[in-house]
Sequence to fold (205 residues):
Amino acid sequence: MGCTVCNFLKKVFGKKHLPESDSLPVADSDMKKFLIVGLGNIGAEYVGTRHNIGFMIADTLVASDPRVATFQSCRYGAMARMKIKNCELMVLKPSTFMNLSGNAVRYWMNHEKLPLENLLVLVDDLALPFGTIRLRKGGSDAGHNGLKNIAAELGTQAYARLRFGIGNEYAKGAQIDYVLGRFPEEEQKALPLRLETAAEAVKAF
Fold:
């Protein structure tokens, strides 16, 4: 897209610190397409958990445009399509579970014949304080199984990801329970605004 997210994030956070189908509504062929992938786990038991922040950002992004009806079932997940200026965002929530997210990403990248630079993955990050957002064009998976699987399926780590901080306030050996746990009350109150900020960052990608 024509602008970057850097200035936007600096302004907000300051300086650094139905039936399944592949044939969803298609935009004009001359529109530039981007695949936006929110990572998470399907199932009621995972709704609202820290590890599902990618799903939450995707939901917030789609809800911000009243012209977008909702997510529709598709191959390897659920997808909503929305237009931002002369671009089409294909917002995907994989149904593969976190550890196999790469299957969905690889399929849709190939199906839509998208270049790697048109992919953005929305993901939780333990290394960042709650609500902090970082956009990176590449980097390591930092032990995140979803990112690890995407890199394995694509054969590269050189894809963009928007990292949303979930903090790391957990005891030794309790990481799994922490990421699969829900945000405390204070963070839940702040979460909607942080999710809106993340959604706006996606639009500026």
Observations:
- The longest helix spans residues 185-203.
